[in-house]
Records
---
Amino acid sequence: MTRSPDSNDCRDCLAAMAHRLAQPMTALRGGIELGLMGKRSVADYRSLLEQSLQLADNMAQMIISLRDLGESGAPGGPPQYVCLEATATEVLAEMEGVAQSRELRLQLEVERAVKVRANPERLREALQSLLGWVIQNSAGGGVLAVGLSASGGEARVLLSPPRLDLQYLQIKVLEDITTPGLLFSHAAKNGALGWAINQRLLDGLGGKLEILTDGPDAGCVRVRFPLAPESAAL
C-alpha cells in the first residue's frame, strides 16, 4: 500500500479504516458508560455484555484485516507444485470450528486431483483467509461446499455457501482498480475490505478471484489458478 504512486489514495484508505475502527470503539464505550449509570437488571447487564462482545469481535476482525492488508503484497517463498486437495483438506479441518459457530458444515468435493505452482504456505494462508471471509459473510446455516476441478488449463476452487450476505455491487466497483492504495480506499468505504485483501493475496499466487453471477453457480465464489504442467497433461 505504501508503494502506491499516489499517496492521497493511501491517506484515504487509512482514514476510511480508522473511521470504521472508531465506530465500534465509540459504541463499546457508550455501552460500558450506560451499564455504569444506575442499577439495572441481570437481563439488562447480560444484553449489554453480549453487545459489547460483538463490538469487540468486530474490532478484532478489523485489526486482523489491517494485518492481512499489510501482508497481502509481501513476497512469498519459492513456488512448488502443490496438491490442491491436500491443501484444501488441511484448510477445511482448521476452519471447521469457525464454520460450526455460524451453523455451517464444510464439505469438500473433488472432481479431479490437480496441482498448482505456488508457495505452499502462502497458498494455504490465502485459501484459509478466503474461506474465513466466505464463512463470515454467509447468511444462514447449511452446507458450505468447496469444490475442486479443472477445465481449460485451469484449476478451479468453487466455494458454494447457502447464501452470501453481500451485495454484488460492493465487489463490482473494485474490478477495474489496480492501484493498491485506491483499491483499499474504495474497499474500506464500500465494506469490501476483506474481499480486496483476498484478491491481492490470490493475485500474488497467480490466482483470479471472482463472484459468479450467472448459471447454476450464481452467488458462488470461484478462484482460478493455472494448472501445473503435470496436471494439465492428465
Note: The domain at 7-71 is CATH 1.10.287 (Helix Hairpins).
---
Amino acid sequence: MRLQRTTLSHRLLSLTAAVMLAAGALLPASILAPTKSILAPSSAHAATLVVNTLNFAFLTDGSCSLAEAYANTRFNSLFSLDCAAGSAVDLDTITFAVSGTILIGAGGFAHESFHGPLAVDGAGQTVVLDAQNLGQIFYNISGSLAVSNLTMANSGTLGLANEGTLALDNVTISNSADTGLSNSGTGTATVNNSRITGATALGVQGAGVRNVGTMTITNSLISGNNAPGQWGGGVWNAGVLSPSTLTISNTTVSNNTASVGAGIMSWPPSTLTVVDSTISGNAAAVNTRAGGVMESSRNGGG
C-alpha cells in the first residue's frame, strides 16, 4: 500500500507509561550513571576526540578508546590522557580513525544536558557498536545527541533511548532485544536515512520504534521487527502525559509482525502523519486486517 498522506488525530485517553530501563556503567563504574560531574568543567572550546582503537577498555596506553573519549566528553575535562579534553559548553564530536566492531560494555552510554552537546560520527570508517546483548547502547537522558554513519547492534534491551534532543543520520539499529529506538517524555527525535531492523519487543508495545514524544522519520527503513502478543511491530505511536506527534515521510515500513497494528499502531492521544511512504508485507496475528496501519479502534490493511 502506498500512502500519499494520512493524518490521524486522537482524543485524550489514559495510557500507562512504559518503564524506562536505567543505564548501566562502563569502566570506571561511575562513568555512565546519571549524576553530576565530579570534575570541574574545562574551559576548552569545542573538541574533536578521535577513537583510534577497537579496544573498549579504559587504559592509559596511548590509544584513545571509545570509553575514554566518551568519559572526556561526559566529565567535560581531560579525564583520560589518551584523548583530547571535552568541553562543558561547546559541541564535542567523537570520530573514528579505525574501522571494525567495538564490543560495548554493559550499560552503554548515558548523556545529559550538563555534559554539553555531543556528536558521534563514524564517517569515513565502517563502525559497528556491538552491545553483546548486555544492555542498551545510547541513553540520551536530557541533552543534545547526534549519531551518524555507524551501526548499533545486539542491544540486550533498548537499542537507543531518548528523552532529550536526538538526531540520527545514516544509522543502523539492528537486533535489539527490546525496542530499537525509543523516544519518550519530552524527547524530540529526528531520524534520517536510517534503518531499524530485527528488534523483538517482549511484553511492551512497539518493536522497531516507540514514540511517546515528538519524532520525524525521513528516507528510512523500518523492517523485520517483531512485537509478539503486543501492538506496533514496526512503529508504536502514543501519548502518555501529553499527546505524541510522529511524522513519517519517504520511508518504508515492511515485513514487521505484531498481534495488532503490525506496521504502524497509533494510540491516543497522538497525531500521526504519513507522507509518500510504503507500508507493505506487515502481518498482524490477531486481526489480519490490521497488518498495515491501525489507528486506535479503526483498522486498515496493508
Note: The first strand starts at residue 2 and ends at 9.
---
Amino acid sequence: MGIRHRWISNLFSLGRVVFVLTAITFLVVSLYRSWSDLLTYEWNLDYLSLMASMALLLGVYLLGGLGWSLTLRLLGGRLRLGSMVSIWMLSLIGKYIPGSVGQIMSRIYLCEKKGVAKSATLISIVLEMGLVVVSGEVVFLASLFFGGMINLTSRIWVYLLVIPLGLVLLHPTFLNWSVNFALRKLKKGPVETLNLRYKNMVALLAFYLFFWMVYGVAFYLLNNAVHPVSIRELPTLTGIFAMSFVIGFLSIFVPAGLGVREGVMVLLLSFYMPSSTAIVISLLSRVWSVLADTLCFILSSALVYYIF
C-alpha cells in the first residue's frame, strides 16, 4: 500500500512538473515566434490608465490583507487590523522563494510575536489560499459566459453543477477535512474541529469575489494602457487574469508562479488580441506586480518596525 501511495504521489508530482514546463515552453515559443513583432512594437502607452491601474492594484493588496485579517479573526487572532494588514503585505516578498515558505513562515513568526498561536495563523493561511483559488475559478467560469464561449444551455448545466459544489466546499465539515489534510501535507499535526460558521465562510467567499472584481478592473486598466480595449471586455479580462493568477499560485514550486502565470495569460489573451500584444501585456503585468510587491514591502517594513 505504501509503495502504491508513493507511486501515485510521484505520478502527481511528475504531472505538475510537466504542466509547469508546458506553460513555460508555450511562453518561450510564443516569444520566439513574435520576436520580430516585439522588436518593432510601437509603445504608445496611456500613462493615465497605467497610473490608475497601479493605484488600484495597491488598493487590491489592501483588500487582500483585509481578507486574511478577517479569516484570522474568525480563528481567534485578535490583532489590530492595521497590524494584520501590514504583516500580510510584508510577507508578500516571501512568495519569490519556491514553495512560498517565506510568505508563510514570516506571517507565523510575526503573528506569534504579537501573541497569536502558530496553529491559528497557519490555518488562516490555508483557508485564505482555498478561498483565493475557489473564488478565482468562479470568476473565470463566470467570465466565459460574458465572452460568449459557453451557450445558454451549457450555462444552466454549469450553474447546476458549480453552485452545489461550491456550497459543499464551503461547508465547515469539508473545510475541517481539507485543512487537516493540508496540515498533514505540511508535516503539521491535525487540529481539532474548527469552530467556523457556514455563513461566515459564505461571507468570506463573497468578499474574495469582490476582491477579484477589483483586481480585474486594475488589470483592465493595465491592458488599456497598452492596447485600447472596450469596457465590454472587462469581465473576460478579469476571468483571464484570475485563472492565470490561480494556476501560477498553485505552482508553488515555482517562485511566484514565474513563467507559468505569463504562459497561461498569453494563451488566453491570444484569443482576443495579437500574440505580440498578449506577450507584452503578460510581461508588463509581471513588472506591475513586482513593483507593487516592492512598494508594499517597503511601506509595510516601516509599519511593522513601528508596530513591533
Note: The longest helix spans residues 275-307.
